[in-house]
């Protein structure tokens, strides 16, 4: 039953009677694993029932999962859309069934914002801008071209689109910055390694890699080393996420800079769900707070990192 039912009866639902369906993207990265764990832990602590599905980075699987949550009549559906477009039909089905939808981590590209109640997650454009700003500062005394390889996230995903946009917007201030190659590594370590191997061959004069997440950057490190170059020195690497393995590589000097993207969305999602079920209004856009890390800062922060 929905928020409307609750307010009409005036009786608040007990947490144990609230059922939430969460359609996750997949298990493509360290970030995603941390995000899944945080969401499952937060719901377990809340006493609400969580139904969880993993779409293995396929939109069709996510749509199937959402449809099944609609059929089961869950109270709230939350999901992290693998790509931005193509959601209107299934979201309309949820709306017609009176089931509120919360977007978690990633946005949809839809003209109709009545199809979801709230979007909780990072500002991916800002993350790309922060990565770009580090690059601009790092090379401020260099006049020669800086040839950049970009490892893109999943094609069509909000973080891939927005991070590329934010980064490009900042580096365009100086034409010495040239993105000489840009390809998707699908946010995975294997993808980052494979794409870097190929792109280093076709662009042997590249000196900087911007990877849309830590995992692809970690894969790139392996490819750079296999090419006989030193990651962090011959080829500088900038990434986004700040998961444990990324922070370790940053602290070891193999990555040069990381922009944080927090996967710890569980508690906030639980709060949103509680409010929605109680018929209270929620903010349409809820941003996560994030910072950045240099190599020194990574060494200092490492012991207390949660993910
Ligand atoms: O949507 C967030 C992104 O998805 C993370 O940066 C990446 O690691 C994950 O796969």
Automatic annotation (TrEMBL):
| Principal location listed in the UniProt entry | other
| Annotated localization | Cell envelope
Please tell me whether the keyword Signal is annotated for this protein.
yes
Q: Which PROSITE patterns match?
A: PROKAR_LIPOPROTEIN
Keywords assigned: Signal
**What sections of the protein cross the membrane?**
none
Task: Give start and end of each Periplasmic binding protein domain.
Answer: 21-280
Q: Which domain of life is it from?
A: Bacteria
The family classification in the record reads:
Belongs to the bacterial solute-binding protein 2 family.
Query: What is the name attached to this protein's record?
Result: ABC transporter substrate-binding protein
- Organism of derivation: Cryobacterium glucosi
């Amino acid at each position: 039953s929905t928020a409307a039912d609750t307010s009409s009866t005036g009786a608040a639902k007990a947490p144990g009677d609230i059922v939430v369906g969460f359609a996750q993207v997949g298990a493509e990265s360290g970030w995603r694993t941390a995000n899944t764990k945080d969401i499952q832990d937060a719901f377990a602590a809340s006493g609400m029932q969580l139904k969880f599905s993993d779409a293995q980075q396929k939109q069709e699987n996510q749509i199937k999962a959402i449809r099944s949550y609609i059929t089961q009549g869950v109270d709230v559906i939350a999901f992290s859309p693998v790509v931005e477009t193509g959601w209107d039909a299934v979201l309309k089905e949820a709306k017609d069934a009176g089931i509120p939808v919360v977007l978690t981590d990633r946005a949809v590209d839809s003209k109709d914002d009545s199809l979801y109640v709230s979007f909780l997650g990072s500002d991916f454009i800002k993350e790309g801008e922060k990565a770009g700003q580090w690059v601009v500062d790092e090379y401020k005394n260099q006049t020669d071209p800086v040839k950049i390889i970009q490892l893109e996230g999943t094609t069509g995903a909000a973080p891939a689109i927005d991070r590329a946009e934010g980064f490009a917007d900042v580096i365009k201030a100086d034409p010495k910055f040239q993105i000489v190659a840009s390809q998707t590594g699908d946010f995975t370590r294997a993808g980052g390694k494979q794409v870097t191997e190929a792109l280093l061959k076709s662009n042997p004069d590249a000196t900087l890699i911007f990877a849309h997440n830590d995992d692809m950057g970690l894969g790139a490190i392996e490819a750079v080393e296999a090419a006989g170059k030193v990651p962090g020195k011959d080829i500088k690497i900038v990434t986004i996420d700040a998961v444990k393995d990324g922070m370790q590589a940053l602290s070891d000097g193999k990555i040069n800079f990381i922009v944080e993207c927090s996967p710890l969305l569980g508690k906030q999602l639980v709060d949103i769900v509680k409010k929605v079920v109680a018929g209270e209004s929620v903010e349409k856009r809820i941003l996560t707070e994030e910072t950045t890390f240099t190599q020194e800062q990574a060494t200092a922060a490492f012991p207390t990192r949660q993910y």
